[in-house]
Amino acid sequence: MHGLINRSIQNYFCANYGQRLWADVAARAGLDFTEFEAMLTYPDHVTPAVLEAVCAVLDRPRAEVMEDVGTFLVAQPGYEAVRRLLRFGGVSFSDFLQSLDDLPDRTRLALSELHLPPVELREDPDGQYSLICEAPLVGYGYLMMGVLRAMADDYGALVLLEHCGRSEGAEALKIILVEAEFSEGRRFELGARA
């Protein structure tokens, strides 16, 4: 797994619970180091081991931890690049949802070595949406819920999100856009400031 994923989990944990407790996570996960290097690749078993250790140290279920990590990736000030990448999906939350299918490809344009699992948005006849997240990592759907929740806030949209379970390596989310302009969203400018 790409080190950026592991480093993001580490950054989330350290920002919320501290470096000292992170050392407990690293030990419990069987790591012989405490700092992930963002540009390295790690064996696939490392990420699930780290997530299990985080859940054990915090005594929280994986679903909650993954959703928190997803929210952290968008809402944390140090992760502005992630927010910018997501905001290029459109000027409204509906546009953003419609662009989710392209997210893995957009991510590879920014960082060619990072391969995000495919996601597929389906619009239901009643105007609701389903997001299918194909991922070997259990809980990826919950991570996407955190991302969607933070992006809805970013756009000022009111949404209801529900995780509908995991089947055959994919997790499904139900998305109900209650009100597109519920509140004032966060400011976003296309050009980066120097």
UniProtKB/TrEMBL annotation:
Residues 2-157 form the Heme NO-binding domain. It holds the Pfam family HNOB. It comes from the Bacteria. Transmembrane segments: none annotated. PANTHER family: GUANYLATE CYCLASE SOLUBLE SUBUNIT BETA-2, SOLUBLE GUANYLATE CYCLASE GCY-32-RELATED. This is Heme NO-binding domain-containing protein. It comes from Sulfitobacter faviae.
